[in-house]
Amino acid sequence: MSRRRFTWHHGLIGAAVAGLIAATTLTAAQAQGMDGPGPYGMGPGGPSMGPGDMGPDDGPGGVGPDDGPGMGGRMRGGGRRGGMDDEGGGAADMTEHEVSVNGVQRAYYVHVPQNVGHPAPVVFVFHGGGGRPQGIARKSNMDEVADQNGFVVVYPEGSASPSGRGGTWNIGGAQTVSGSDDVAYVDAVLKDLGANVQIDPTRIYAAGHSMGGVFAYRLACEMSGTFAAIAPVSATMVEPACHPTSPVAVLHIQGAADDRIPLRGGRGRMTREGRDWPAPSKGVAAWSRFDACAATPTSKTEGIATCESYSGCKAPVEMCVLAGEGHPWPQDAAPKIWAFFAAHPKVSQ
C-alpha cells in the first residue's frame, strides 16, 4: 500500500486538530473536560488491557503485524551489523548490542551517523506489536533524518509476543508480556549506550508506532525525568496511573481513518471483543494538564494534517490528525518528529 505524503511545514508543528475531527471524534480540548472516574476520564480503573488484547499486529488478538516478520535469522553480540528484514528493506547501518535485564539477555540496535553530535541527541524508535527493529527502521526512515541532523537512533526490541510473531511491549495497565520489565530494559539500554556514546542528557526522546507509541506514553509517565519529548504515532495512552515528576513534550500523530486504534476510541478492527481503546485525544488532554498548559488549544489545517496545539505549557503538547490516513506510519513523519524534538530539549521544572 502506498502512503501519501502530507503537507506539514515545521511552523505548523505547533498548530491544530479541531475542524477536521469535530464530526468524528472528541478533540483533546473536549476530552480534557471529561474526567469522569478513573484515570484521565477513562472510567473506573482505566482500560482493561490484558495479554493478547492487541491482535495479530501487536500480539495475538490485537492490532496486526505492524513491522512485518523482521529478520530471517538472528545475530547476537554487541556491535554486530543488523541484517535485511524480510520485507526487503535494508537495515545494514545498524549495530546490534545486548543488555541483561533481570537475568534475561535482550537485544537493541543502534544507528550512529558519521556526523553525530558531541554530546549526541538520542531518539528511541519503538516498533509496533508483532514487529521488529529492522521493520520500523525501514518504515520510519529515521536513519536518513539522523544522518542529516547528527543524532543517534536506538531501535529497541520487544519481548517475544505470546503468538511468537515478533516482539511486543509491556504497555501498562495489565502486563502484555508476563515478567517483562520493559521500563528497566530501556533504562539498561541508555546506560549501555552511554558507555560508548557521549549522550546529551537534555535531548533524549522516544517515538513509537502503534503499541510502540502506547509504550512511549508509559515511558513519559515513568521516566519523565529522562525523556524530553515523545511522539506516539497511531497510538493512544493506556497507563492507568500516570504521575510524571517532570514536564515532557508530546507530539501525537494519528490517522483519521485508523481502524486499529480508532480516533474515537473503542474497539479496533483486530481488538478482542469487550476490550476498548481510550480515544487518543484523552491521553493528549491528560498531558496538557500534566504540563500545565492553557485550557484551550489552537488549531490549524495544512494539507491533510490538522493540528491542535496547547500554549503556555511547561512543555508543549500537540496532536495532529491526518485526513484519510489509517494505521501505518506516515511516509514523511520522521522529519516532522525530529523538528519537534530538536525544538524541545529537556526543561527544568
Oligomer: single chain
Could you say how many structural domains there are in total?
1
CATH superfamily: Alpha/Beta hydrolase fold, catalytic domain
Shape: globular
Output the structural class: alpha/beta
Instruction: State the end-to-end distance.
Output: 44 Å
Q: Encode the helix/strand succession as letters.
A: HHEEEEHHEEEHEHEEHEEEH
What percent of the residues sit in helical stretches (DSSP H or I)?
A: 10-25%
- Tally of helical segments: 8
CATH architectural type: 3-Layer(aba) Sandwich
Strand order of the largest sheet: 1-2-3-5-4-8-9-10-13-12-11
Number of strands: 13
CATH topology: Rossmann fold
Mean pLDDT: 78
Largest sheet properties? 11 strands, mixed
